[in-house]
């Protein structure tokens, strides 16, 4: 990972978008909600500066209904790779509601996906809720094995450490 990254957001990885569409489809008729993280484009083999959205983080304890999804804000990780949010509109409407706009303050891009959750059933918005362009980029997603590199001994140490 590079110490200094360009903040320009180039797009979303095709596999990341496919994951979010499938997760939204699986959650339907309730809303789906997640947070977006990006990876430096050069770390993905692209010969340009900028970032590509590569991860969707689902926060434990998120509750959802057909009208909304609620995240426990205290569970949201503080990450330098965080770039925005993604959620679904089961009614298929691809524009932000007033409630959506109120949550768009954290991050540069907010994606809404809508039923029937096909490849073209999504739109990106900036922090003001205005539409923005976001390319779908076909790149191999990085292996983030270190995130899952723990066992029961590590869990016990974390739980029972004084």
TrEMBL record:
CDD domains xref list: MPN_archaeal
GO molecular-function term, one example from the UniProt record: metal ion binding
Segments traversing the membrane: none
Record keywords: Hydrolase, Metal-binding, Metalloprotease, Protease, Proteasome, Zinc
Gene Ontology CC terms, in alphabetical order: proteasome complex
PROSITE patterns (UniProt xref): MPN (PS50249)
Pfam family for this entry, one: Prok-JAB
InterPro entries per the UniProt record, alphabetical: JAB_dom_prok, MPN
GO aspect biological process, one term: proteolysis
Domain (MPN): residue spans on this chain: 10-131
Protein name listed in UniProt: Proteasome Rpn11 subunit JAMM motif. Metallo peptidase. MEROPS family M67B
